[in-house]
Specification:
- By secondary structure, the protein is α+β, with helices and mostly antiparallel strands.
- Among the domains are: 119 residues, Uridine Diphospho-n-acetylenolpyruvylglucosamine Reductase, domain 3; 200 residues, 3-Layer(aba) Sandwich (Vanillyl-alcohol Oxidase, Chain A, domain 3).
């Protein structure tokens, strides 16, 4: 970027909030993929109007702008692959309103997801989307990537809670979408179009989010199984029973070993997998549903079922669950993390076929995730030192995706496409579908300045 351009950016937000220092740029050059692309500058706007001016300048001068929250994504969605300007939402971090009567919250994109959850729960309300990174990921990032989480089984994902948005377009124009009301069908649903668009169509500067009442009762179950197949069959039976849990997490033995120290339960070698289940409702419904679920687990050969005694015990189990992904590096030096989804009834077959892929390519594989909605995180762990290992891993990834599609699923449930999954996009989408999506991108961003190079392969 030219010095004159940097000076214009400083004129918009002030010298304190623009940096081109190498050490600062490095901090914004990577995400959870481990890939690195150095931006040319980073800017920290504080308002919609500042972002509008930044985008007008970008469209005029043709430099890329990449909006970034916490940089916790797994597909490279917030990386500066074409250089340009990283636009951090760090300073747009206010919860503007919590309306208890109408059960909505109005937030800026830099609000930490867990902070909103804490504040609405203090008022007896509930914001269910709960990605594992909720303690540091931002709501703007969740909206951009269409994030999910364990509670999606019962409550749905981020898109189900976004009622409306304020968005700065790549041209600098500002639009509002949706409504605070419970219903609205005026024109095309632009709100849903922006959710999951990976920051390629506009920059969210405000979001209206739906809240729901806090569940009266929660029951948390820790269930051990001798092998993954029995655990997977229990998942299928639970979901077919009509007793929908709030969460239904599957964790295989490899993943469990990585968080052994964080578990309050001893981990013995005969455990092949566990299910971590939470049931929400009234006291009577939670009791009835949890008893039925326990019975189904026993019918599928569970070794042990433990019901947590208090909130502290339950929180300890969830802390261990959230620690799995970063802890997997105990199994290898590099991680390939995929988030496939299949129809829930096909979970048992999926688990069996994943075992076969692991054995076929002689790769360490750890599987865990939101089994209740068919979303399994497949982690291929690389050891390094084997010159053929990477090639085997690439073949394994493609085979894993093929299995997901054959089982009625998708190659990405909540991580998005970014740059990591671009080579596989045509496995799921037809050329016509990709052409239509590219056409939408061109309508919103004719200069291709906003997060270029993402989703669609060149």
């Amino acid at each position: 970027m030219r010095k004159e351009t940097i000076d214009k950016l400083i004129g918009i937000v002030g010298a304190k909030y623009v940096t081109t220092e190498k050490e600062d740029l490095i901090c914004y050059s990577y995400d959870a993929t481990g890939r690195e692309y150095l931006p040319e500058a980073v800017i920290f706007p504080e308002s919609r109007d500042e972002i509008s001016k930044i985008m007008r300048l970008a469209s005029s001068e043709g430099f890329p702008v990449i909006a970034r929250g916490a940089g916790s994504g797994f597909v490279g969605g917030s990386l500066a692959t074409h250089g340009g300007l990283i636009l951090s939402t760090k300073r747009l971090n206010r919860i503007l309103e919590i309306d208890k009567d109408n059960m909505v919250a109005v937030v800026e994109p830099g609000v930490i997801t867990g902070h909103l959850q804490h504040d609405v729960e203090a008022m007896g309300l509930f914001y269910p989307p709960d990605p594992s990174s909720l303690k540091f990921c931002t709501l703007g990032g969740n909206i951009a990537m269409g994030s999910g989480g364990p509670q999606a089984v019962k409550y749905g994902v981020t898109r189900d809670y976004v009622l409306g948005l304020e968005v700065v377009l790549p041209t600098g124009e500002v639009i509002t979408t949706g409504t605070r009301a419970a219903k609205g069908v005026v024109g095309y649903d632009l709100t849903r179009l922006f959710v999951g668009s990976e920051g390629t169509l506009g920059i969210v500067t405000k979001a209206i989010l739906k809240l729901i009442p806090m569940p009266i009762s929660k029951v948390t179950l820790y269930v051990e199984f001798p092998d993954t197949t029995q655990a997977a069959k229990a998942v299928s039976d639970i979901m077919a029973s009509g007793r929908t849990p709030a969460t239904l997490e599957f964790i295989d033995h490899s993943a469990l070993k990585c968080v052994r120290e964080a578990l309050s339960e001893p981990l013995n070698e005969e455990i092949g997998a566990i299910l971590l289940i939470e049931v929400h409702g009234s006291a009577s419904v939670s009791k009835e549903d949890s008893e039925k679920i326990i019975d189904l687990c026993k019918q599928n050969g569970s070794l042990r079922v433990k019901k947590t005694r208090n909130k502290k015990e339950a929180n300890g189990l969830w802390e261990a669950r959230r620690a799995i992904s970063p802890s997997l590096f105990k199994l290898g030096t590099k991680k390939i993390n995929e988030d496939i989804v299949v129809e829930r009834s096909n979970i048992p077959e999926l688990i069996e076929r994943l075992k076969a892929v692991s054995e076929k390519y002689a790769l360490t594989m750890a599987n865990f995730g939101h089994a209740g909605d068919g979303n399994i995180h497949v982690n291929i762990m690389l050891q390094g030192g084997d010159i053929n290992e990477k090639a085997r891993a690439e073949k394994a990834v493609r085979e894993v995706f093929q299995i997901a599609l054959e089982l009625g699923g998708t190659i990405s449930g909540e991580h998005g496409i970014g740059i990591s999954k671009q080579p596989y996009l045509r496995m799921e989408l037809s050329e016509k579908e990709i052409e239509l999506m590219k056409g939408i991108k061109k309508v919103f961003d004719p200069q291709n300045v906003l997060n270029p190079g993402k989703i669609f392969p060149d």
